[in-house]
Design goal:
Length: 92
């Protein structure tokens, strides 16, 4: 499996597949997303527009703010969402 993020497919129909790709690549490269602080559910990366990403709980639906837009670095946006999601009370 490649450790590189594929270019975003500029087709709305491909968004779900692309998000699955993001989750697969990032899970292999980085520490996993922590479970949801509210319900213990599994977290997933998701995105709404090109290069904008957030982390969302698949169980209760709570989520981080959305990071990035079409002008920002995609990977940086993903990392910002992950860092926000994984931050817990007591962390510096
Ligand atoms: Zn939850």
């Amino acid at each position: 499996m490649s450790d590189k993020l594929a270019p975003y497919p500029f087709c709305v129909d491909d968004e779900e597949q692309y998000i699955a790709h993001i989750n697969e690549v990032l899970a292999a490269q980085f520490p996993p997303l922590l479970s949801c602080p509210f319900c213990g559910g599994e977290a997933t990366y998701t995105g709404h527009v090109v290069n904008a990403f957030l982390v969302r709980c698949t169980k209760c639906g709570c989520m981080t703010p959305s990071y990035g837009d079409e002008l920002t670095d995609r990977k940086k946006s993903i990392m910002q969402a992950r860092d926000t999601w994984n931050r817990r009370v007591g962390d510096e």
